[in-house]
Specification:
mainly alpha; about 800 residues
């Protein structure tokens, strides 16, 4: 099988057509025989009322056969024609496409091979008389020549593939048209009696009739086709009217509102009819009027129509949303070409970005590959303008003090009246962030070996190379962060070239880039940073652990590993980078409403959940090596301290007061430790199967912020809290946390609360029963914190610990492993 394929079966279609034709010919022949039957029985042999009644039925039957025969024949002919079209597409056109695709790959491989050979020749066989400096220069020249050859070969292959992809899409569109034509012929030659009034009512209201009789299903299919045919005709007319209407202008808000009432944005048939007949010149003229020829009210009115058309263009590009009514691929190709043309240079790119942003509508609507291509087009155009006019060339000069026209653009800016903030890269990225497939395509490229790799040159340009081109820093930070987050949401155990490996590589570089230079972090990216590391929390936890990974390449996972960190391919993160990045990010929590610290809260709930899941997985796995549990709880305690330390650094950076930062950090430390017990219900995790990241960031975020409740107290009565004070009880509380974990997985053995309750039924204030009826420990951290308010429960726990827990766990060698000796009365 080649690169391109079609899911068609010409033989079956032809066989069906032959069957219908045979049936039609048979009915036509028999109709004559049936109608002549009356004359074959003389009236002298049979007469009377019965004869008259039956003869009428026979005549009617003959007439029906004469009527239906040609209809079946026509339907059969339509299917046979369709079969011929499909067979030609499959045997001739598709074969040619695949042959040329394979040829493009061979040409590329040959070019790369020749470049490698030339490189080796130049490097390995320098002239004997050459000096070391000359050899070094020759190596550099050879490397540059090889890179240039690689680039040219890649460009040539990409261009060839793009042309072939376009031809393939045209082939698919032509086939869809052929199938639609055949379907229309079949409908026209299938008679199901439905009153015209019923059809008209359905077209107007979209409501199914109550009862269509025995042919209900077929009748409904016919009604849908009738409606779609009507919608497509209306779409075609609406486009023709738009093309003429937009030759004059400007138009009043009421005129625009009246025209918008005609648009059936959610109808695939209407969209196809509209877009296949839309004049791109008229569309562009409308956008020019919207930005240069009207006041704020007029611009806003035009913006609603631009949004409507953008939504149709977005859905129309998506084959899954369009179904049977595809928009011709050349429409989008012509639109992209047009965007690069015109005066002033760049305005066409702004117009395209405006439609892209408005059309996405906050969800993955555009075709992913088309959207990624437009994003790369826009960045490439910007780089071309910088090369042509200097690095200070800017988009803002194009629209000057114009109004943000669409609601999507206004929302991105945050202030609808702010002029001169146009940035098409930010606008397109605002759309890309809702589509992880498009985001991944934007952030990656194909390496010389044909595998995906991060496009580091592009990434670093986006991170810091376009500061002179950005319209509004916050808007760009939010859009860029959203794309990085979406494009790295892949998890698994794959090696180089896999999506999870590439995603981990991007995350590792991202954390290093901004962690080593936190002052370069764009405002608006803070939530995205937490989202990225929420999804890649196992990589963060591994950085806090004892793993000894070298280099910067991702660590490839083992599908048979015991813990998620073993199974998953992870980014290799450095402590210093994480400290620099997260200290900067958590600073935003200083300004959070009601002291909720949402960034810190989300991060810590998920981090602690991951450690708890590791603990449970290890406890239940018979193959877990000795010492793994103690390693997990040790890393958990260290990670708590590290993350709260980041939070404290962030607070001090904003508060400029060590006392305030320490007070807030103490709140954070106490809250984090309380998470380790029963405040993290792993059975309610959306991920399942122990894979925290597998749930996706949005689900995790929602769960994390609902599952716990960070409350700020600041311990204002204690104005001289020190860092040492913050950690005073950390060891004890972490030990209590891990005791709860051991109890949850049934690892306390003879020291179990169930055994204690049976021996001491009057000392169970520190216990509760789980769903199975087993006595288990209450939240021991809460018991500890409330030991003065509720001394009875705490003292009973201490008695249990001294009489049963400490000695029996010590004898089982858990004492040293879990440092439970820190628990004292």
């Amino acid at each position: 099988m080649g690169h391109f394929s079609l899911n068609v079966d010409p033989d079956s279609i032809e066989a069906a057509g032959a069957g219908l034709s045979e049936l039609g010919n048979h009915l036509t022949t028999r109709s004559t025989q049936i109608k002549s039957t009356n004359g074959e029985i003389p009236e002298s042999d049979w007469k009377g009322g019965a004869r008259n009644s039956i003869m009428k039925e026979v005549e009617a039957l003959g007439n029906q056969a004469a009527r239906f025969g040609p209809m079946f024949t026509n339907a059969g002919t339509a299917l046979k024609t369709l079969a011929t079209t499909a067979r030609t597409a499959e045997d001739v056109t598709l074969k040619s496409l695949n042959d040329r695709w394979d040829g493009a790959q061979s040409t590329y491989n040959d070019a790369v091979g020749k470049a490698d050979t030339a490189y080796r020749q130049a490097v390995n066989h320098p002239p004997p008389e050459s000096t070391p400096a000359e050899r070094k220069m020759a190596r550099e020249d050879a490397d540059a020549a090889r890179s240039s050859a690689y680039s040219q070969a890649y460009s040539d292959r990409t261009a060839a593939e793009g042309k072939l992809n376009g031809e393939y899409q045209d082939l698919v569109t032509d086939l869809q048209t052929a199938f639609a034509t055949a379907a229309s012929t079949l409908v026209d030659n299938t008679v199901i009696p439905v009153p015209d009034e019923t059809v008209n009512n359905f077209i107007k209201s979209g409501q199914w009739p109550g009862d269509l009789g025995g042919d209900d299903v077929l009748a409904k299919d016919g009604l849908v086709l009738a409606r779609d045919k009507h919608d497509m005709a209306e779409g075609e007319q609406a486009a023709r009217d738009f093309n003429e209407w937009m030759k004059t202008g400007p138009h009043s808000p009421q005129e625009i509102a009246d025209y918008r009432k005609r648009l059936k944005i959610d109808s695939p048939a209407f969209r196809a009819g509209f877009l296949n007949n839309l004049s791109l010149e008229s569309l562009r003229f409308m956008q020019m009027v919207a930005h240069h020829g009207v006041d704020a009210e007029g611009a806003k009115a035009y913006g609603t129509l631009i949004t409507d058309i953008g939504r149709m263009m977005a859905a129309g590009s998506n084959a899954g949303l369009q179904g049977d009514y595809q928009v011709r691929s050349t429409f989008y190709e012509q639109w992209r070409r047009q965007a690069k043309e015109g005066i002033p240079e760049g305005e066409g790119m702004l117009f395209m970005a405006e439609l892209v942003q408005a059309g996405q509508g906050g969800k993955a609507t555009w075709d992913s590959t088309l959207l990624a291509g437009i994003a790369k087009d826009t960045v490439g155009f910007e780089q071309d303008m910088r090369a042509k006019y200097g690095e200070h060339w800017n988009w803002v000069q194009i629209w000057g003090n114009g109004y943000p026209v669409t609601e999507a653009f206004s929302n991105q800016l945050g202030t609808a009246g702010v002029p001169g903030r146009a940035d098409p890269v930010a606008m397109v990225f605002d759309a890309v962030q809702y589509d992880k497939e498009a985001a991944y395509q934007v952030l990656t490229r194909t390496g010389s070996d044909g595998r995906h790799v991060p496009n580091m040159d592009l990434l670093h340009y986006l991170y810091d190379g376009r500061r002179n081109q950005v319209g509004a820093a916050y808007s760009w930070g939010d859009a860029l962060g959203g794309v990085i987050s979406a494009g790295t949401q892949f998890t698994g155990s794959g090696g180089p070239g896999s999506r999870e490996y590439v995603a981990a590589d991007i995350v590792g570089d991202f954390v290093h880039y901004f962690g080593s230079q936190p002052d370069k972090l764009w405002p608006g990216m803070e939530q995205d940073v937490v989202d990225i590391l929420t999804f890649h929390i196992q990589a963060v936890n591994a950085a806090n652990g004892k793993v000894q990974w070298t280099g910067n390449d991702p660590h490839v996972g083992d599908p048979n590993g015991i813990l998620a960190r073993d199974r998953l391919t992870l980014a290799v993160l450095q402590d210093g980078d994480l400290n620099g990045l997260m200290s900067s990010v958590f600073g935003l929590d200083y300004y959070a409403e009601d002291g909720k610290a949402p960034l810190f809260q989300q991060f810590m709930v998920v981090q602690t959940a991951a450690y708890k899941q590791d603990f449970i997985d290890a406890a239940r796995d018979p193959d877990a090596p000795a010492g793994l549990l103690e390693q997990i709880v040790g890393e958990h305690g260290a990670a708590n301290k590290t993350t709260v330390g980041w939070f404290r650094n962030g607070m001090e950076g904003q508060a400029h007061d060590a006392d305030v930062a320490n007070q807030m950090a103490r709140d954070a430390a106490d809250w984090v430790l309380s998470l380790g017990t029963d405040k993290i219900p792993l059975d309610k995790l959306p991920a399942g199967a122990g894979d925290i990241a597998g749930a996706g960031v949005d689900q995790l975020k929602s769960w994390a912020l609902d599952a716990a409740g960070f409350k700020e107290t600041h311990y204002e009565e204690d104005t001289k809290t020190t860092v040492d004070d913050i950690w005073k009880d950390t060891g004890t509380q972490n030990a209590l946390v891990h005791l709860n974990w051991m109890d949850e997985v049934g690892m306390l053995g003879e020291a179990s609360p169930d055994n204690w309750a049976q021996a001491h039924p009057d000392k169970t204030d520190f216990l509760e029963k789980d769903a199975s009826g087993r006595w288990v420990l209450k939240d021991t951290v809460e018991l500890y914190k409330q030991r003065e308010e509720n001394p009875e429960a705490w003292n009973q726990f201490v008695d249990y610990w001294q009489q049963q827990g400490n000695p029996k766990l010590r004898s089982e060698d858990f004492y040293e492993a879990f440092e439970l000796g820190l628990i004292t009365g």
